[in-house]
Design brief:
Layout: H1 2-19, E1 23-26, H2 43-48, E2 56-60, E3 64-68, H3 73-80, E4 85-89, H4 98-105, E5 113-116, H5 123-135, E6 140-142, H6 148-151, E7 164-165, H7 168-171, H8 175-188, E8 194-196, H9 199-206, E9 208-209, E10 222-225, E11 230-233, H10 241-249, E12 252-255, H11 260-266, E13 271-274, H12 281-286, E14 291-294, H13 299-304, H14 308-338, H15 343-355, E15 360-363, E16 368-371, E17 395-400, E18 402-404, E19 411-416, H16 422-439, E20 442-444, H17 453-461, E21 472-474, E22 483-488, E23 502-505, E24 508-511, E25 515-518, E26 521-531, E27 534-541, H18 559-576, H19 582-591
Parallel strand pairs: 1-5, 3-4, 5-6, 11-12, 13-14
Antiparallel strand pairs: 1-2, 2-3, 7-9, 8-10, 10-11, 15-18, 16-17, 17-19, 20-27, 21-22, 23-26, 24-25, 26-27
Helix pairs in contact: 14-15, 16-17
């Protein structure tokens, strides 16, 4: 692989030389600003060898660097080892920004131009880059090129899998009704129409699902919404006669995916809303002949609040997932004690048990099955090269999820496979305390996730511990496992929390070369009470799975925390038990029995 990276860099630099470019930037996104992208647009991974979901690679004629966040520091260091790429740890003191690094690297360069594929970077990011590069040496940014087309000889094509209709019994609302609500939201922003590029927003709006992105049931397309017309730009080979008829009945026309520039050119309304953080620079520039309303898309907020049918679907999905997790956990420790189990083998076992459940559609992300030191790698995914055997001792961190017809699951459990150290018990208990404190939260309607983030961190902060990833993210209704715009995290995210939103609760601690602990449930925000001060909200656990009580230091737990855990376990048992066979039910009864100091 290292030789391949060298060959690819050599080929890239040859084309850069022809184009008189001093550097080229490879973001992680596709033309839809997706977090997870189809293989065709995995250019950053192809040029660098780093396969994490977040990061930016930058190549000059004499150097190369890759920026990524704390989730991937350890993994990126390993994957970049032996290549030219230098790891740049984002948000770590002393790490230069991309513009400042380029300014220094190109100070003596013959060229003052750098390149980026404008169709694979948001308009906001490109505009910021242009401004920053002017300040760092007067460097010009060219956006009209896709150098990968010239050097990636076996580049995958745009996916062409068939699209399916998502039943209204699960969606809870027709596409035509959603379009009506979107148009109302647009009117409130004095916009006549909008271009939608985010694939999960398009899938939600149209009540369609696809298979174009690994683990995400979306399809490559654009949706152009006008006052009395909507057009889905998609490869027509993906559309069956049934889907075409369905769309027509919902007031949606179709055009070829490649015709999006013509569609923008032909747009007939007075103005158009474009979200500069969603729409790529190429399309944003193409729309500049129209009056642009540059504003956030209204769809993510509408999508984030689940209706009754979606909540019901989530609970069905969590029931199925809880059954699979119970069967898996009953099997796990005896299997490890017998030997011959590895990170990959237990991951495969869990996937098999999930696949046996009703309405299972696939994984919602690749399983993180991380034993001991691997648990400190936040987004570690075992491969044939990294897979290690499990022993009846220490921690297995298992972060996994599935797609069901009704909803999407995301759960993390850290499991003691046998004896654990005093340090592991302390960290496990502190993480659990943080998890419970967020689940116990009561807060005013409209509070932002940032304002309650400290609840999950305070038990860790008291001991000088912290984690650098977010504490919680929204989860889609048989859609993407990461859904915004609301989040619970330290960085300021102003989106208000509302009843009906899903949110994860996943604090963790990661001690490099030792172990990691994370405990995660998916929650539903629900009403708590109404007073003269207004409406208050709280969290309801959707996830149904026991939390390992063996490593807990009970003397570090408050009575309120113990009461919450016992009540949660009672709910888990009462909900799952009727659907379990005798042996699984007996195991679950033992795993959820009350604990006390």
């Amino acid at each position: 692989m290292k030789n391949q990276i060298s060959e690819r860099l050599a080929a890239l630099r040859e084309v850069m030389r022809e184009e008189h470019l001093a550097a080229f930037i490879f973001p992680s996104t596709d033309p839809h600003n997706s977090e997870y992208v189809p293989d065709r647009w995995k250019g950053r991974e192809w040029i660098s060898g780093f396969d994490g979901s977040a990061g930016t690679a930058v190549v000059t004629m004499t150097s190369a660097a890759l920026w990524t966040d704390s989730r991937y520091f350890i993994a990126a260091e390993e994957q970049l080892s032996g290549t030219e790429f230098q790891l740049m740890k984002m948000k770590v003191a002393g790490t230069p920004s991309i513009p400042s690094w380029l300014g220094a690297e190109l100070r003596d360069s013959d060229s003052t131009e750098i390149g980026v594929d404008g169709s694979c970077m948001s308009a906001a990011d490109v505009e910021n880059l242009i401004q920053d590069m002017r300040k760092n040496g007067g460097i010009t940014v060219r956006t009209n090129m896709d150098l990968l087309e010239k050097i990636w000889t076996d580049r995958p094509k745009v996916p062409s899998d068939k699209i399916e209709i998502y039943p209204t019994e699960y969606a809870g609302e027709r596409c035509a009704s959603k379009l009506q609500r979107i148009r109302q939201a647009l009117r409130e922003q004095h916009a006549d129409g909008m271009l939608v590029a985010a694939l999960d927003d398009i899938a939600w709006t149209t009540n369609l699902r696809g298979n174009d992105v690994h683990c995400n049931p979306v399809f490559v397309s654009y949706l152009l919404i006008a006052t009395n017309k909507a057009t889905l730009f998609v490869d027509k080979a993906k559309l069956s006669p049934e889907v075409i008829a369905y769309l027509k009945g919902e007031g949606v026309e179709t055009a070829d995916y490649s015709a999006i520039l013509k569609g923008i050119d032909d747009y007939f309304e007075y103005n158009i809303l474009l979200d500069p953080n969603e729409i790529n620079y190429t399309l944003f520039q193409a729309a500049s002949k129209h009056k642009i309303v540059a504003a956030p898309s209204p769809i993510p907020v509408l999508k984030a609040v689940k209706n009754e049918s979606e909540v019901r679907g989530f609970k069905q999905a969590m029931l199925a997932d809880g059954i699979a997790m119970t069967k898996f956990l009953r099997w796990l420790k005896p299997a490890v004690e017998q030997g011959n189990q590895t990170e990959l083998s237990v991951s495969n076992k869990l996937e098999q048990l999930r696949s046996e459940q009703k309405n299972y559609k696939g994984l919602s992300f690749d399983t993180i099955s991380a034993y001991q030191a691997h648990g400190a790698i936040v987004h570690y995914e075992p491969t044939c090269e990294t897979d290690i055997p499990l022993k009846p001792e220490g921690f297995l961190l298992l972060d996994s999820g599935a797609q069901y017809l009704g909803g999407t699951t995301d759960i993390t459990r850290t499991i003691a496979l046998g004896d654990v150290t005093a340090e592991q018990r302390l960290v496990y208990t502190l993480v659990l305390k943080g998890h419970i404190q967020l689940e116990l939260a009561k807060f005013p309607d409209g509070v932002a996730g940032t304002q309650i983030d400290a609840l999950a961190r305070e038990p860790l902060w008291r001991e000088g511990l912290n984690f650098l990833h977010g504490t919680g993210h929204g989860v889609g209704a048989y859609l993407n496992v990461h859904e915004g715009p609301h989040q619970v995290r330290m960085e300021w995210k102003p989106t208000p929390l509302r009843a009906g939103m899903t949110i994860t609760d996943e604090p963790g601690v990661y001690l490099e070369n030792r172990f990691g602990v994370r405990i995660e449930n998916t929650l539903l925000i629900v009403p708590y009470l109404t007073t003269e001060m207004g409406d208050f909200l709280q969290m309801e656990s959707l996830t149904l799975c026991p939390i390992d009580t063996e490593p807990i230091l009970l003397d570090r737990m408050t009575q309120e925390e113990i009461d919450w855990l016992n009540a949660y376990h009672q709910t888990v048992y009462q909900t799952l038990a009727p659907s379990l066979e005798d042996a699984d039910r007996e195991w679950l009864a033992a795993a959820t029995k009350p604990i006390e100091k």
